[in-house]
Design goal:
Layout (H helix, E strand, L loop, with lengths): L1 H11 L3 H4 L1 H4 L7 E5 L6 H10 L4 E5 L6 H4 L1 H13 L5
Parallel strand pairs: 1-2
């Protein structure tokens, strides 16, 4: 039963209304968009997301695919830590 619900969630959500560029534009929290340079997520789509979120930061991790966090923890962890610890912009 849970597997069926999870599969339906993966196949049907998020919808464009739930996670379209207009909804991303409403994000006000500090946001780090991170992607591997060989990711299955296309670079143009990543850039659309990045540009849609006001004040977002972008990190394109070299020599990685979609498993960036697993493949390059020594590269991504310091970036994430710096992002989380950074004082809020005024």
């Amino acid at each position: 039963m849970a597997i069926g619900k999870l599969k339906r969630l993966w196949l049907e959500h998020p919808t464009p209304d739930e996670l379209g560029l207009a909804s991303l534009a409403r994000i006000r929290a500090p946001t780090l968009v991170m992607v591997g340079d060989h990711d299955v997520i296309r670079l143009d789509h990543t850039l659309e997301i990045f540009h849609a979120i006001p004040g977002a930061s972008l990190y394109i991790v070299p020599a990685t695919e979609h498993a960036t966090f697993r493949d390059r923890p020594a590269w991504v962890n310091p970036v994430i830590r710096e992002f989380v610890d950074r004082p809020p912009l005024k």
